[in-house]
Fold this protein.
Amino acid sequence: MAEGLSKTCAIFFLTLLFSLPLGMIVALLRMSKDKVVSSVTRFVISVLRGTPLMLQLLAVTYGPYYLFGISVSRNKLIPVVIAFSINYAAYFAEIYRGGIESMAKGQYEAAAVLGYTKTQTFLKIILPQVIKRIMPSITNEVVTLVKDTSLAFTVSYQEMFTIGKQIANSQTSFTPFVVAGVFYFVFNAIVDFGMGKIEKSMQYYK
Amino acid sequence: MKKLFTVLLAGVMVLSLAACGKTAESSNTFTMGIDPEYPPFSSLGDDGKYTGFDVEVCQAVCDKLGWEMKIFEVNWDEKLVQLDSNECDCVWSGMTILDSMKEAGYVISAPYYDNTQVLLVKSDSGIATSADLAGKDVAVQLGTSGEGLLNGDLSDMAATFNNVITCDSFLKCFTELDGGAVDAVFVDLPVAVSYAQEHDGFTVLEERFGDEQYGIAFRSGDEALCKQVEDAVKELVADGTYKKIAEKYPDIINNLIFLQ
């Protein structure tokens, strides 16, 4: 199961690495003044949020083969991380958007008066406040991600839960599931603790 | 508000009582636990109903005993847990009899099918024996006897493979093979044969692995139920119904123990 745990961690960290920045790009596209761009993005987000992640995993893994004859990847980590990153980016995008739109208009006006460019305003004034504000929602998603990694078993990726199932099978016992449950819980306890620390470190105005 | 809550609560209780009554009444329904993706023993037919050799035999048994047959799709790697939790009355779906099942107290019927495991490969892969698979990837379904063999008696052979990949259904194993993600699938003979016949470009290797038999699993303490089913099957064999059903499945007919 230890080997499986490392694969679970690989999904987790790689997904965060790609989906957090990707989410920001999607959020900016979603808020674009160009009607076409924003409505296309909106549609994509609604598809990603409106269909099961399990289905998206299957589509990303086997879809290219059925549609274009591109062979199924031997290293399942690639399609798994792609599917997870795209899916989580959609959720993160909406969280970012909520954060950015909650900023008072006055701040943009004040920044403009002080001679900040649009990019400067966004990076130096808006973004730091947004990150602070959305931290609890991000934590929520990250905790869900830890548990969602177990979905990778549908595309035969040998992560912790798949291996737990194999052991449970060969021993006709439930213990591996209990062990897996404890692993997920401890993993999330660590995530919770880490995110709590980050949140606290950002409360510099209080 | 409080009153409304009381009424609702009472409603829920009445409904749950009614639900209890139903299970007690329906003692003459027989719920068959199947792997819905296991042709030719049990699979979804073109008409959207489950079919296959095991399903047809079970239907005939239920007709004979005057039971109403229900089908429950088990999650193959949890089948015994689902049997224990009363979700089905038996597991009857090309299930290999394992010593561990008997040790765990399950009642297992007399074996009805001789099975072996084989390797299914792509015809143009140039793989002719298991030795050619050294350093290659092999898929197997989670919870099958094939997986057990690769972890147990055949672990020496499995050690020569690059990777053994477990999928949650055989169809997924075959998709992996078709899509080029693995080089072979380790699978029960009848499943491999029927897949190779229906799809071009696949070959079943000559080698046979393991020596195992299929049986029906019941909960511990259900000896009487098992006996009833076994006797009904015997009658079906005697009156020729069994053979008639078997003739629809030419891939497996030669290995049916009751017809030998």
